[in-house]
Amino acid sequence: GVALVADGMHVGGDAFLREGFEAAGTIRLGGVRIDGQLVMSGAKLTGTDSGGDALAAHGIHVGSDALLTEGFEAAGTIRLLGASIDGQLAFVRAGAARRLVLLDARCGQLADDEASWPSSPGSLVLRGFRFGALAFDTGWHQRLEWVRRQGFVDWSPDPYEQLASYDTTSGDEAT
Q: Please, what is the Cα angle at 92 between 110 and 148, to 5 degrees?
């Protein structure tokens, strides 16, 4: 089921769904505009809707950072379809996403670690995803492994081109 529906809401500052926040159903934030940060650090999303989504934030706009960090867990898909995050989109020290959909999403900076990546091929959707910078230089071998989590069903050359462009503009033309 659905635990929270906030579709179309406007938050004039920060939105905190963090430590101690637990939802036994989907959190829907479709078309939400948050002028500050979205902080979900330590949140536990233990339920999903009939489509398997734990967090459905289609078209969300975050004026600063979106932090899904420090023990954040989601039992289902994290769907950020068409999301626009002006600052950092962070998945650091979080539980591995079962499925992460970043279709046509963009962020100023991506901060992630390997432990937060979806584990199986096909569980990461990156078609049209754009980032301005990477917070951590994990090396191109590890980042290539991240891109390969797309699998072949929703495979797109976009992430390969985005990484090549990023590496070139940051001075690493060997990759």
A: 60
Give ∠ CA 18-145-102 in degrees, rounded to 5.
45
Distance CA 99, CA 122 (A): 8
pLDDT in tens, the chain (175 residues): 899 999 999 999 999 999 899 999 999 999 999 999 999 999 999 999 999 999 999 999 999 999 999 999 999 999 999 999 999 999 999 988 899 999 999 999 999 998 898 988 889 999 999 999 999 877 778 888 888 888 776 677 787 787 778 777 766 555 4
Residue 107 pairs with which residues in a beta bridge?
Answer: 85, 131
E-strand ranges in 51-163 read 53-56, 61-62, 66-67, 73-74, 77-79, 84-91, 99-101, 106-112, 124-125, 130-134
Confidence (pTM) = 0.90
